[in-house]
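Dear all,

This email documents one entry for the complex benchmark we are building for the journal club exercise. For each entry we list the sequence lines for every component of the assembly. Then comes the predicted three-dimensional structure of the complex as a token string, followed by one or two observations. Please use this as the template for your own entries, and keep the labels exactly as they appear.
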Amino acid sequence: MAAPRFRPVAEHGLLVEFGEGVDTGLHRQVMALDAALNAAPPPAMIETVPGNACLLVRFDCLATDHAGMEAAIRQHLGRGASELPAGRLREIAVCYDAPFAPDLETVAAKTGQSREAVISTHLLGEYEVFLYGFAPGYAYLTGVPETIRLPRKSAAIRDIPAGSVLIAASQCIVSTLKMPTGWWVIGRSPTRVLTADSDRPFLFDPGDRVRFRRIRHDDPEMRHV
Amino acid sequence: MSEARLLVRFAGPHVSIQDAGRPGWARFGVPQSGAMDRLALRAANAALGNPPDAPVIEISRGGLQIGCEAGEIGFALAGGGFMLEHAGKHPGSWSRGILRAGESLAIRPGYWGNWCCLAFAGRLSLRQWLGSVATHGPSGLGGGILVAGTRLDFDQIRQQPDLAPRFPCPVLARPRQVLRVTQGPQERYFPAEALRELYEGPWRVTSAADRMGTRLRGPAIAPRAPLDMASEPLARGSVQVAGDGVATILTADHQTTGGYPRIATVLDCDLDAFAQTAPGRIVAFEPVLATEAVSLARLRQVAIARYLAGLSQVFR
């Protein structure tokens, strides 16, 4: 395990880089440091933001500086990625029926298989919440199986509804707001990732595992969609 | 305690409720948000004896017209050089007064500045989201975006002491032409010429700007191909460069992670002043070390504290 690099981010941040790319081993190191820092936050730490292979640590620069924060972070390094508890398992219902899956046909055609094959492959994937990004509640779930991976569309499509199940390359997102996206829309979920519950406003924590469960358009769960 | 009711008659785009924002939620994709010019937020509040981070209406160059339907309430406007029309007078930014039933405030862009903050000497009941009423522009979550017809109800209105109508605009609140940056953190994605061009410029502020970011026009500093950076976390002030070489400075409502490399990061202590730099103006990037960045931030903080203490003196 290589030592991470520390890079200053303006006067109030340090980016701790474990490597580059989307990789489970690197991401476990990110999550291990994230867990250690949040279990015993160093003085003046404001927040940590996990990425794929990096952790951003923001701090109050009136109370400490980059050298002080780096020293504090180093004390939490190497405290066992192996001890990192497995994230909780979350189940997400998905409806792949029309009109909720406008890109399913194209994904099937581009990957040379039937719609049903794309659906069963998507359901077989074991996903992990690597990070949030793009917009509030957009959790990047890594684990889309190889045979249904496609690069993003060349241009974004406007006004994709909240709850859309999107895929691009190895990642899957259940969208939370009506937004433009260049990802492939293969279904709709009635599950809210961004919830109205003020105690638990987001369904996932980074590190959680996710499994999808198929429902049909006439399922009672879809009534609110 | 008296009450007052205000009605928005006209609001341009990006006019919203803001406070100091909600730090600590970036891990869930939620940026801090809050006022684009945090000094203007604190100045407008201090000018009325409010807590420094009390909710305000943040007004873009689109402008705002707001009328008082009932009651009366003290107000203060800070940030930029906006025009303000009230009761037949034209006091502008950095002024305060009392808005009475039947009167209105009309705020329009003036000689300089992109954003101003309108504070009131009373409590506004607002929708909180994650511990703050700051509006996240792209989703509208938080206190909300103001449109014609929005009603604002105040209670707990405080009587104002006899105050001078003008309060000083500090030099600190002026636009900045030189933006201090720390290099990277993803400068390795760029050829050496791109880094040289970043510091040579020239860079022009464009009108492609909102609360998420401001696009710049300048030399093409495209990252090396192929571009396959994984999404990594980023901070307010990031200078993000898309595949076509166009640079954007990310601001209050920035994405929390992104797959375009950041060639540099503007110091947070320069971002309030950058927020007031008008489209068409030239800016330059100046690299500083992390230790210098911290010193600059602390110096500015001392100067701001001194200015705000001066404003609050009359309320002690």
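Observations: Chain A touches chain B through 46 residues (CB under 8 Å). The longest strand of chain A covers residues 89-95.
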